[in-house]
């Protein structure tokens, strides 16, 4: 289809709700602003349509989807009083969102994989609650969102952000994701964010999480694979912290977490510099603990963890005894493959135990002590110290186990 005023005849369709303009050579959206019931407009792969000016004042328009088109600005959208969702993903000609400044009804803005270089003015949108600028490499700052009154979620994965300026002043911000963001090395901009509950910086080059400690409701932190991060001390004041995912970081100590009494999930696997976890004895709510390949030499601290359900100490060569686990009456899963533990006897005191992995534990010579655990379903004991002639006896005494591998 072609022509400049193709949409003008549509004015006589008072019930028209949706218009999709896909892969056409039109140059204008003229006439659509006069469609009284139009609620959704999609413009996709139309390189000759470069402006939204022709839909300014579209009284019923609620959703505007713009993908891979030739738009250079969004002027006109601000005049659509009911517009609440705008998607400008994969629009490489757009560098700013000036046309949305002050939009009274705008709630969601998706601009992933676009050429946006600034978010200036979005903090004047009183209802804006969701912003997605993932894979926007030209955006370096969040200053344009400073104090945004309704903002709840910011997704900026694989973006060019170098700072999180102004986000700490967003009163309703709950979730921030900056996964794989290589230029961001700190979280200072989030300092004092009163409603923040979730922060995800997995696979980023984050060096410091200073500022997160001043977020009173922070519950979930993911800094997995942040190889430059050496310290989680700023989290010591996060009394609402429930989950910390910090596998494959460069952490050396965890003592600062002793005050995080609500912590339920802790993963610091592959942090080989961690030697002492005694400070974790205060984590009385912990249910899942992953210390795989850490330098830990003792797990005596777990005797103070009555809620512990899962523990992974695989490849922790310094651990030889697991006596403290007899106090963990709710333990369900135990993984100690490739360790030097010499006995699984304490596990017989864990009535809810379902899974045991002692593969390559060549000092473990007997598992029959576990025969009274009625919930036990899986045992992996390949290449442990059980003599081959003892295998039949083990299979008989542990016949209730669904999968027994010797």
Automatic annotation (TrEMBL):
SUPFAM superfamilies: L domain-like (SSF52058). InterPro entries: Leu-rich_rpt_Cys-con_subtyp (IPR006553), LRR_dom_sf (IPR032675), SDS22/Internalin_LRR (IPR050836). SMART domains: LRR_CC. Keywords: Leucine-rich repeat, Repeat. PANTHER family: LEUCINE-RICH REPEAT AND IQ DOMAIN-CONTAINING PROTEIN 1-RELATED (PTHR46652), LEUCINE-RICH REPEAT-CONTAINING PROTEIN 9 (PTHR46652:SF3). This is Uncharacterized protein. The lineage of its organism: Eukaryota, Discoba, Euglenozoa, Kinetoplastea, Metakinetoplastina.
């Amino acid at each position: 289809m072609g022509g400049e005023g193709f949409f003008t005849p549509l004015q006589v369709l008072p019930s028209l709700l949706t218009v999709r303009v896909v892969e056409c050579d039109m140059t204008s959206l003229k006439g659509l602003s006069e469609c009284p019931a139009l609620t959704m407009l999609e413009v996709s792969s139309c390189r000759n349509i470069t402006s939204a000016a022709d839909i300014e004042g579209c009284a019923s328009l609620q959703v505007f989807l713009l993908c891979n088109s030739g738009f250079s600005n969004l002027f006109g959208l601000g005049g659509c009083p009911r517009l609440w969702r705008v998607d400008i993903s994969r629009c490489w000609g757009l560098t700013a969102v000036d046309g949305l400044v002050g939009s009274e009804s705008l709630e969601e803005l998706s601009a992933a994989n676009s050429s946006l270089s600034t978010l200036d003015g979005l903090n004047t949108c009183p209802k804006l609650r969701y912003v997605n600028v993932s894979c926007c490499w030209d955006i370096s700052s969040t200053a344009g969102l400073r104090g945004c009154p309704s903002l709840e979620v910011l997704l900026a994965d694989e973006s060019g952000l170098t700072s999180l300026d102004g986000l700490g002043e967003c009163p309703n911000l709950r979730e921030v994701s900056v996964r794989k963001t290589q230029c961001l090395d700190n979280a200072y901009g989030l300092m004092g964010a009163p409603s923040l509950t979730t922060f995800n910086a997995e696979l980023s080059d984050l060096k410091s999480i200073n500022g997160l400690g001043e977020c009173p409701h922070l519950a979930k932190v993911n800094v997995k694979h942040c190889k430059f991060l050496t310290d989680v001390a700023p989290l010591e004041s996060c009394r609402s912290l429930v989950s910390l995912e910090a596998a494959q970081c460069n952490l050396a100590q965890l003592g600062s977490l002793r005050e995080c009494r609500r912590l339920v999930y802790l993963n610091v696997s592959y942090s080989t510099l961690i030697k002492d976890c005694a400070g974790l004895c205060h984590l009385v709510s912990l249910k899942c603990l992953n210390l795989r390949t850490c330098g830990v030499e003792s797990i005596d601290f777990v005797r103070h963890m009555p809620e512990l359900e899962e523990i992974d100490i695989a490849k922790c060569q310094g651990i030889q005894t697991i006596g403290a686990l007899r106090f963990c009456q709710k333990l369900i899963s135990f993984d100690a493959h490739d360790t030097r533990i010499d006995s699984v006897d304490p596990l017989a005191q864990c009535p809810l135990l379902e899974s045991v992995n002692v593969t390559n534990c060549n000092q473990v010579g007997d598992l029959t002590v576990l025969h009274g655990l009625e919930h036990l379903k899986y045992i992996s004991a390949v290449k442990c110290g059980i003599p081959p002639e003892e295998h039949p006896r083990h299979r008989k005494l542990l016949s209730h186990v669904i999968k027994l591998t010797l």
